[in-house]
Amino acid sequence: MVEKSPGRPALKRLTNGFSQRGLRLRSLTILLLAANLPALSGCAWLDMHEARLALRPTAGRPAGLAPDEQLFRPGDERWLAAVPAFAANAVRNAASNDTSNATSNATSHAARGAPPQQLALWWLPQPDPAAPALLYLHGTFRNLYQNLPKINALREAGFAVLAVDYRGWGDSTSIVPSEATITADAAQAWAELQRRQPLAARRVIYGHSMGGAVAVRLASTLKASRRADSTVDATSGAPAGARVGARVGVPVGVPVGAPVGAPVGDYAALVLESTFTRLPDVAAAAGFWGRSAAAATTLSFDSLSRIARVDAPILMLHGRADTTVPIALGRRLRDAAPPGVRWIEIEGGHHSRLHSQVPALYREALRSVVRFEAPRAADRDTDRTSNGREDGVKDSTEDGVENGVRDGTKRIPMAPGRTLSR
Question: Which of the listed residues 35, 146, 169, 249 has the most CB atoms within 10 Å of its CB?
């Protein structure tokens, strides 16, 4: 699948997604940069050029795009939020910091005296104000304008969407991004989603490709939505949310003294599409030069070490024909996640086109992660579903799609020539 970069015809061969040939070329360049590191005056220059090659941010509005009235619906909002500029020498430290307050972390690494930068945010609501809301985190290269087909597929599934163009992409300030700036931008967008959708049980975090790594990092610092009496304290045996003494453990995510039945947590589910384990693993899949560059790169986007800390239901989708992120990396990430992942493999599915290749399956899979009917008045205070379970992945197969038990090779026919594997 060829991804074209508007306005850069000379770079077509280097912007072929994460294609294996493109990866080999970029990996060789990164390796050559790393080999000359001792001759460089510092690490910031290397980080900047490495990030430009690996992340390929696409700034601005693509040429030839349809007018806004054809792209957006009445009520859609787009705006620029001010964010602090990162200090160049703080990028490495901030990227490796797993603090749960990424916004505060970004502020602590702000460049002194630098003017604020701009972060492009989109709020694309549903007619029903009670609709579940999804945080959309895109991957490398394509900005939000170029991701509109996928965003629209999520809207068609019934979600209100809060989307962010990290700095370097789209209408945001044009910079060479880093893992640290991307993480901070996602945290800013998450804060806005919380403001737009106050019910944790109706918030979903979604990431595609590199955005999946950003989503895992964010989700690993949050707690799943549940009622305070939906779990039991493993130490004391008391209902979660009941007051316990200082010497007795409290269930993770449940505040001491929370009344029984009170809603606790931050979000309902995590959705990962065409996502990898670590960015160096994607490079290594390109062969010798990729493996060499993977050993030298400072970019990580390490979901493998973080996904075990995600305690919400997880839906993962991956195409078997994905030449950008090999499906083996998706399976490896799935196996590192907590039990109960719903795993969907699409026969013939590509990296960025699952929403258009299997639209019905895509829509139904997304709708399965959260309850869509409007909450009743009695439920608004408890975040409960109609069957008393916490919001999340369905526990039945009434829609013909089974939950993601990791082992086994059962295939469920979907359409001629296509299968769903678990």
Answer: 169
**What's the rounded Cα separation, in Å, for the pair 157 and 160?**
9
Rounded to whole angstroms, the Cα distance separating 184 from 190 reads: 10
Helix then strand then coil, in percent of the chain rounded to 5, is 35, 15, 50
CA distance 363 to 87: 41
Query: What are the residue ranges of helices labelled H in 87-175?
Result: 91-96, 102-108, 148-156
Residue 50 has a pLDDT of 72
The phi and psi torsions of 181 (rounded to 5 degrees) equal -70, -35
Tokens 């979901």 belong to which residue? 303
Both tokens of 381, joined, read 């205070």
Q: Is the pLDDT assigned to residue 2 strictly greater than 80?
A: no
CA dist., res. 284 & res. 294, Å (int) = 6
Q: Which amino acid is at 238?
A: A
* pLDDT at site 43: 55
Task: Record the tokens describing residue 23, joined without a space.
Answer: 């990866």
Which pLDDT band holds residue 44 (cuts at 50, 70, 90)?
A: low
d(CA 329, CA 280): 11
Residue 167 CA to residue 117 CA, distance in Å, equals 8
Helix (H) or strand (E) run with residue 343 in it:
strand 342-346
pLDDT at 286: 74
Name the phi and psi angles at 126, rounded to 5.
Answer: -100, 160
Give pLDDT, residue 259. 58
Return d(Cα 104, Cα 19) in angstroms, integer. 36
What one-letter code names the amino acid at 232?
V
Helices (DSSP H) in 59-161: which residue ranges? 68-71, 91-96, 102-108, 148-156
Tell me the two tokens of residue 43. 């690490």
> What is the number of residues in the chain?
422
Q: How far is CA 287 from the centre of its chain?
A: 27
**Sequence-ordered strand ranges (E) for 209-282:** 226-227, 263-264, 269-273
